């Protein structure tokens, strides 16, 4: 039995790691501003032509992502609520955490609330530790709507699906079915990455229950139907053909298939080195062994063929990368890899637990005699500390916060907003902001007044033309993260 002081120490460490990852997100959220990239274009289109007409313009002319289009064309600028962008990052982070908890509370059913919360907090820390792009995950509204929101919805949907089977027939079960159908509709209509993952996941679960358990699951059948109809709505959009037609390497299936697995392999190796997933996996074994015991209420969720689950796990991760290669012929953007990394983490520990069922059943491990080696927590602690020291996301957030760059950016953008709202002019000349904190900044307007970002912002504020003056500043120059726009 684990000593109470050891257990308390683990709990305190898990809570501190969560706070280490979440607190800078909370602080930086209050320095956030709308981005010149896309945010103003969505708002200007919605204000100028109306909310529903804006949906049609984008559906017909650029992308079939009908649900994320719905969200971005209702961003705070549309309502004249400029400060609303300060709430988006913390809401996105909190929503993602709650969605993770929603799923983990099902997978850890039977464990204490404290265990469920601390496990969620530790997983959230691992997510932030090696996230590819913080700004695209939480601060840039366009990316939040297309990637973070459907990711959170997917996690919550998996929890809803698990709970559905425990509900008795009646009104609550019917409403849960409707809610699950809406989640499928929203997830598929947000991005191709989420679409591919969800469709494959639903088809796999439905096929397993039909072929292995001989159960024609009507609930899963309904969700598969909703996913296929929603996918048809997305792919039939005229804008998709226009978007894919912009790259001569799009549509190459074999090359995209191979490239997806190569990119996944390189990414997984990097994550295994950059994060303490391996030592934490060993520390997770005692909890996994409790989850797979015969008296565990969550055991059926892990009682699956381990080899099939492993193959599907790898296939799902590669499939999320595939649309980037197939659609535009280039490696996935940071925002795509944010999603892939999250499901890598979740899937890693889920697959490990599935294999634990096999190990216990075959007698490879015994739940009554297994003891965690004393060197494992020490190795995990050292690995965690080293990972924190080399974590680019954590280092970037704390640097932007503590060296004052986020505050300077906030003041400069607030002053720019004041100038933009001082009536309309034929031409408004703006000076560059002094710093470009990478946690908050995506892209700025240009010195060319005909650039799309300039035209969208000018149109929104009623100016004929906006131009960024070319001046030499001591601040860091912006680095565009739009070069791999999916």
UniProtKB/TrEMBL annotation:
UniProt entry keywords in alphabetical sequence: Membrane, Transmembrane, Transmembrane helix
Transmembrane portions of the chain: 79-101, 113-131, 137-158, 170-188, 194-212, 219-235, 271-292, 304-328, 340-360, 372-392
InterPro entries xrefs: DUF6056
Name the record gives this protein: 4-amino-4-deoxy-L-arabinose transferase
């Amino acid at each position: 039995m684990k000593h109470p002081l050891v257990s308390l120490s683990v709990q305190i460490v898990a809570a501190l790691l969560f706070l280490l990852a979440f607190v800078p997100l909370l602080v930086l959220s209050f320095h956030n501003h709308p981005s010149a990239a896309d945010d103003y274009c969505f708002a200007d289109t919605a204000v100028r032509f109306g909310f529903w007409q804006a949906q049609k313009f984008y559906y017909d002319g650029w992308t079939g992502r009908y649900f994320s289009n719905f969200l971005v064309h209702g961003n705070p600028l549309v309502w004249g609520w400029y400060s609303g962008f300060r709430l988006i990052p913390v809401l996105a982070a909190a929503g993602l955490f709650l969605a993770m908890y929603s799923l983990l509370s099902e997978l850890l059913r039977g464990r204490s609330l404290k265990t469920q919360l601390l496990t969620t907090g530790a997983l959230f820390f691992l997510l932030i530790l090696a996230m590819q792009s913080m700004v695209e995950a939480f601060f840039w509204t366009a990316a939040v709507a297309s990637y973070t929101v459907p990711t959170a919805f997917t996690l919550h949907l998996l929890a809803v699906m698990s709970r559905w089977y425990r509900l008795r027939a009646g009104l609550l079960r019917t409403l849960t079915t409707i809610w699950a159908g809406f989640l499928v509709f929203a997830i598929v209509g947000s991005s191709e990455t989420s679409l591919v993952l969800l469709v494959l996941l639903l088809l796999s679960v439905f096929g397993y229950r039909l072929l292995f358990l001989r159960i024609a699951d009507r609930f899963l059948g309904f969700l598969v139907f909703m996913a296929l109809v929603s996918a048809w709505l997305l792919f039939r959009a005229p804008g998709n053909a226009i978007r894919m037609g912009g790259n001569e390497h799009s549509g190459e299936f074999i090359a995209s298939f191979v490239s997806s697995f190569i990119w996944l392999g390189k990414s997984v190796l990097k994550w295994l080195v950059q994060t303490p997933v391996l030592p934490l996996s060993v520390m997770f074994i005692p909890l996994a062994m409790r989850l797979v015991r015969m008296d565990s209420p969550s055991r059926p969720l892990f009682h699956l063929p381990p080899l099939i689950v492993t193959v599907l796990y790898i296939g799902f991760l590669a499939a999320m990368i595939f649309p980037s290669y197939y659609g535009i012929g280039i490696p996935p953007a940071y925002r795509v890899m944010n999603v892939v990394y999250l499901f890598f983490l979740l899937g890693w520990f889920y697959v490990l637990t599935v294999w634990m069922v096999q190990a216990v059943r075959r007698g490879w491990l015994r739940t009554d005699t297994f003891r965690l080696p004393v060197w494992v927590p020490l190795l995990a602690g050292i690995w965690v500390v080293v990972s924190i020291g080399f974590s680019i996301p954590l280092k970037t957030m704390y640097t932007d916060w503590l060296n004052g760059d986020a505050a300077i950016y906030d003041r400069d953008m607030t002053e720019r907003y004041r100038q933009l709202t001082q009536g309309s002019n034929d031409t408004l000349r703006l000076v560059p902001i002094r710093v470009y904190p990478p946690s908050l900044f995506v892209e700025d307007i240009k010195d060319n007044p005909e650039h799309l970002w300039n035209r969208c912002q000018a149109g929104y504020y009623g100016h004929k033309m906006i131009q960024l003056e070319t001046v030499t500043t001591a601040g860091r120059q912006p680095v565009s993260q739009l070069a791999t726009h999916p």
